[in-house]
Design goal:
The protein is an alpha/beta fold. It has seven helices and ten strands. The chain is globular.
Length: 221
């Protein structure tokens, strides 16, 4: 589902060159739940951004669903992201001026579907994360765990094959974190969604199919 070969990422300024990722070779199978761990600054989020086509490698190749994307134009990358990949972030990234259901609908605005169908899919996604009774609320009226569940609903509303989660339980207490983790595990088990999760929580990582560790931009496990 995701393939990275000899991926390197270098950030350059006029005076400094920083090697963020070094010779990453990683393959994520369809339906796999992979977790990525490592100390702060080791390249975890950079790796996730490259997998999600939000950033491009300095060297190496990236393929999504067996399609190499190295020569894709920005519009092609945007369409592939919208159709194939859902994103969940640690800080939720919800729009406070929009209701919960309107937040969830957002990714569908870039698809050629009717307003009625967008609303139906958004309500279905919210139902799948247990928030049917919160659709008319606004993000400021929700707890942290509820906000993250809205973020997951938004990520899955377009039924992507891949879900990328960057510290999805990092801002939550243990009870809320476990609740969010159970939703991710269910999406993987019941829907066959391929999930890659960056985490600092060893316990959460151990619940996934496979654990990859990074250190100073290199894959060490």
């Amino acid at each position: 589902m995701i393939s990275l070969q000899q991926v390197e990422k270098v950030y350059r300024t006029k005076t400094v060159e920083t090697l963020a990722l070094n010779n990453i070779n990683l393959h994520v199978d369809k339906g796999e739940f992979l977790s990525i761990m490592g100390p702060s600054g080791c390249g975890k989020s950079t790796l996730l951004n490259i997998m999600g086509l939000l950033d491009e490698p300095s060297k190496g190749t990236v393929a999504i669903d067996s399609k190499a994307v190295v020569h894709f134009r920005d519009k092609e990358l945007a369409r592939l992201r919208n159709e194939k990949i859902g994103f969940v972030f640690q800080s939720f990234h919800l729009i406070n001026d929009l209701s919960v259901v309107d937040n969830v609908e957002l990714p569908l605005l870039y698809r050629n579907i009717s307003a009625r169908e967008r609303r139906r899919l958004a309500e279905e996604a919210l139902g799948s994360v247990g928030l049917s009774n919160r659709m008319r609320h606004f993000p400021t009226q929700l707890s942290g765990g509820q906000k993250q569940r809205v973020a997951i609903a938004r990520a899955i509303v377009g039924r992507p094959g891949i879900l990328l989660a960057d510290e999805p339980t990092g801002n939550l207490d243990s009870a809320m974190g476990n609740e969010v983790m159970e939703i991710l595990l269910r999406l993987n088990r019941e829907n066959g969604t391929t999930i890659v999760m960056v985490t600092h929580d060893e316990g959460m990582a151990r619940r996934t199919n496979r654990l990859v560790r990074l250190f100073d931009g290199s894959q060490v496990q």
